[in-house]
Design a protein that fits this description.
Oligomer: single chain
Largest sheet: none
């Protein structure tokens, strides 16, 4: 029964994270975000192509997907029991430690859903905003430190990719140093490694000297 509960939570987290926010927002503006700018569906490319408003909206919604995946399990377990008592029993699985672990798995599922959405051929974003939302719910101090690293690198280099890679590396290190949950440490390491892997094209461009620095000016979209 516990295994079934974890499986259901992982799938539900994945489906929540798989909502392709950037793609949908751009599509509503008549733009296929996969064909313009960096061709990524994340908030940074939406910001560059469509401007500050849509970019901030996508950033917040992507973060909310990760935050909600965790909070819905950890904070609303009794309500889930009322809806699906067979999947979410009140004995055993409802203990604080196991509920927390369920939240970790839900958060991991949401990041995987964002990065590999089933609605767009299992292609998606890089998971930075969604991961931030997950860790705002799970581990506020580590994500605060990771965001500080992100901001410092962004302000000094103006490369979102360098900032994101630095934040992705700082998060698991900080989690291992400040948290006592083994599953959280393992999952955070996987999420951090995945985020860095998703930046492989950016790393290649950085090495080649062709990576674009971030600018607050909206790019022109050819029709």
């Amino acid at each position: 029964m516990v295994a079934l509960t974890f499986l259901i939570v992982a799938v539900a987290g994945y489906l929540l994270g798989s909502v392709p926010t950037g793609f949908l927002v751009a599509k509503a503006r008549g733009v296929d975000i996969r064909t313009v700018g960096s061709k990524n569906m994340g908030a940074t490319n939406v910001f560059r192509v469509l401007g500050k408003g849509p970019g901030i909206f996508v950033l917040l919604v992507d973060a909310l997907k990760g935050f909600a995946a965790v909070v819905l399990v950890v904070n609303f377990y009794p309500e889930l029991n009322g809806i699906l008592p067979v999947v979410f029993p009140l004995d055993g699985v409802s203990s604080p430690d196991l509920r927390w672990n369920l939240g970790i798995i839900a958060g991991l599922g949401s990041v995987l859903g964002h990065n590999y959405t089933c609605w767009l051929g299992f292609k998606g974003g890089k998971g930075i905003a969604t991961s931030a939302g997950v860790y705002i719910a799970l581990a506020l101090l580590p994500v605060g430190i990771a965001l500080a690293v992100w901001m410092l690198l962004f302000l000094t280099t103006r490369y979102v990719s360098i900032a994101s890679i630095g934040g992705a590396a700082a998060l698991p290190v900080t989690v291992w140093l400040t948290q006592q949950n083994l599953l959280l440490g393992i999952v955070t390491t996987l999420i951090g490694a995945l985020a860095i892997y998703k930046h492989k094209a950016n790393i290649q461009r950085l090495i080649a000297g062709t990576e674009s620095r971030f600018t607050f000016k909206k790019q022109k979209v050819e029709s």
